[in-house]
Amino acid sequence: MMPKPEGAKYEVAVVGLGYVGIPLAIGFATAGCRTLGVDSDAERVEILQSGKSPLPHLGNAKIATALSDRRVRFSAEKCDLAESEAIIICVPTPIRSHNEPDLGYVLSAAGEIAPWLRQGMLVCLESSTYPGTTGQDLREVLESMSGLKAGEDFHLAFSPEREDPGNNGSVLHKMPKVIGGYTEGCLSRALELYERVVEHPVPVSSCETAEAVKLTENIFRFVNIALINELKRIYSAMDIDIWEVVEAAKTKPFGYMPFYPGVGVGGHCIPVDPFYLTWKAREYNLDTRFIELAGQINRSMPYYAVNHLLEALNARKRSLRGSRILVLGVAYKPGISDDRESPSYRVMDLLRQKGAEVGYYDPYVPEIDAPGTPWHALRTLEWNRGNLAAFDAAIVCTAHREIDYKELADVVPLVVDACNAVPKNRVACVVPA
Length: 433
Ligand SMILES: NC(=O)c1ccc[n+]([C@@H]2O[C@H](COP(=O)([O-])OP(=O)(O)OC[C@H]3O[C@@H](n4cnc5c(N)ncnc54)[C@H](O)[C@@H]3O)[C@@H](O)[C@H]2O)c1
Known about the structure:
The chain has two domains: about 10-205, NAD(P)-binding Rossmann-like Domain (Rossmann fold); about 245-430, NAD(P)-binding Rossmann-like Domain (Rossmann fold, 3-Layer(aba) Sandwich), CATH 3.40.50. Helix content is about 35%, strand content about 10%. It contains 13 helices and 13 strands. The longest helix has about 30 residues, at about 205-235. The protein starts with 11 loop residues before the first strand and ends with a strand. The mean pLDDT is about 95. Nicotinamide-adenine-dinucleotide (NAD) binds near residues 40 and 93.
């Protein structure tokens, strides 16, 4: 195997310190690796270097410990990468407005890493993306800008991230980790690195296979959520409670796993990653029909929820226009502050378009940061009976555990519950959606 660069200060550097990069860097540091964390956002680096987490659900303790043990350092300077044996890239992979992949962050990061690439280094991409990104797009930038060759002068690999923000049971060392290399030698080197932090590495035959594994996992989720959303609409018309159905169905010990309905899908992964494959499949003249259909169903759910609210108000001789509506939860899932691609905002847009006055409550999102939208700088409601009583209706979009649903149903005259969050004995004013 090609030897590692000699005398490197860091065993690993993580580029991109967000939902994925911070836990990964801290995971390496906690396992005893000399770790460098690099982000282009100098303010974020400063917060981390002072021992604090910029993401509330992560907490400060592990970051502070890793810093005091001198196992990790955070930097905004790419030149520090020259001092590392391995570089892991965890930057965003969003989609553009027409659902096309935006590899801009990955390719810029590659361009910034290339000048510091040295013989024997490993570069591993963890950002979710379509098959071919690592072996073609990323490799081409790294090779053309460094003059070095992947597989001969430096190692190249892809290992998808399985971070589950807000799930404290999801710890790096317990999570099986899929790894694909550009060559066999690249795979061996990547395995050697990840074996420091994970108990169950899962080697696969290529970077493309590893990239496809990640897309498959997220497409599976995307399609199954759409399926349960569709079943919800059908069962609701038959007056059957989807939540009761899922609870009972999941007692089957084989061949079934539960998915839950809601107002759509959100976050940086599930609504985004499937369309990376859709785009790539077009190169092969193929359609991704399941993904397109699931997208249609999931995108229709905010309309379905708002329509439910409208009908429930109508039954009470009220119109949506002029009503004050409280939206509960703008984060895309319970227990975290991440509101990227959150369907709650689509619900709020629709309510506003229909003339409702909209407020929100989210203990994890004190103020909405969405420049260019009507919601930018809106602050969360302060939770008390008086403030709740000012609303004509509420709609539960994300069921944070901290919310007192009993009090909500006691005070607000109508609650539309898309998450099965409100206690069942409060059904008088509660409408499932
Ligand atoms: N969020 C999740 O739960 C999750 C789970 C699995 C996989 N992923 C994938 O992981 C990747 C990262 O997602 P995330 O949620 O951590 O993103 P994020 O937006 O939380 O963090 C990305 C970080 O990268 C930094 N960055 C961007 N360009 C940079 C550059 N050129 N150099 C240095 N830093 C740069 C940003 O400043 C930001 O701090 C994405 O591909 C995503 O699909 C995310």
